[in-house]
Amino acid sequence: MIVGGGIGGLSTALSLRAAGLECVVVEAAGTLRPLGVGINLQPHAVRELTELGLGEALAELGVETTFVRFADRHGNLILGLPRGRSAGYRWPQYSVHRGELQMILLAAVEERIGPVRTGVRFEDFEQDGDGVLVTLRRDGRVLRERVDVLVGADGVQSAVRARLHPDGDPLRWGGIRMWRGVTEADPILDGATVLAGGSNLAGKFVTYHISPRNPRLVNWVAEVKVAEPGVVAEADWFREGSRAEVSAHFASWKYALTDIQALLRDTDRILEYPMVDRDPLPHWGEGRVTLLGDAAHPMYPIGSNGGSQAVLDARVLARCLATYGDPERGLLAYEEERRPPTSALVLGHRALPTDATMKLVEERAPDGFGDIGEVLTEAELTALGDAQRRISDADVRALNERESWSV
What we know:
The chain has 11 helices and 20 strands. By secondary structure, it is an alpha+beta fold.
């Protein structure tokens, strides 16, 4: 049983099915709809979804990303890093609408496995050596079902994680508030670039196009540090944001690459939420119960890697369960493979690694520049590129030459 019908949960269902294992997905929402805004899928995730038979659907859905580029608050370009196939990967990076990606995964699950059981909320579990007794609630009725394995893929505020780790596991806020939206605008640069202007500490504005069918559709993200880091009780990912508030933070920008105020003005719905994560866990699961995706390793969304890591989790989980005869040993092998790299990513994202170099640009050239070589040394530019790669990339050769994870 997979708890959660998001990108991680649906990818897990498809991966288990492809590995010859039966599963059911339960989702608390009454209806799964294409909600949310943009997301980037890195080549390592695109490879796995392609091997699950979704390559053509992704190509129709997403914009193939060519570069990530950094700029100052005036729109002067600092550094460009090739992405996807432009960087030598055999698979592209895609910028897509999160909700539309979820609908592609949902359609594949329904076709290959059956319907997701919506309106079903996880409450508790008990386990013994032979299985897991799961307590669920639907329409006020308590349901108890016995399964072989329970996977919590229910997001940052995971109920399964709370049951596994009831003490000392708070949401940690870095003091940065985020606003996000989708609107139409003229193509920015080549229409296939992830563009990051400014820095998290002094104000950052990110844009990228998310639809090959509508080249004018732009996803934007605004990030501003408004408080000191601390602990928060919860985070609402669908809270309405104030257009006036986010606009005020960028009113002084003279951003030559796009009209930020027009993007904000033309966005029908602005979402607001804190940039949060959780400390890496010493272990994810127990026995026949484990975690996956944001339930296991929520991270700051600055490396375009959170959703991609959930897809990798799904594929490794299915491979381990299919290749180990004992479910507990399979889940342990899954965690041993996936927990160290994702824990490192959580801490790497939390450090805001590109900000050190971006801060130098703001300090040395507050009024802009003509030649970045007069502002940053080659070593400092290299450090900026390396910092971004650490939180986003897989080794090109290793990914291209690695054997398939399909069972």
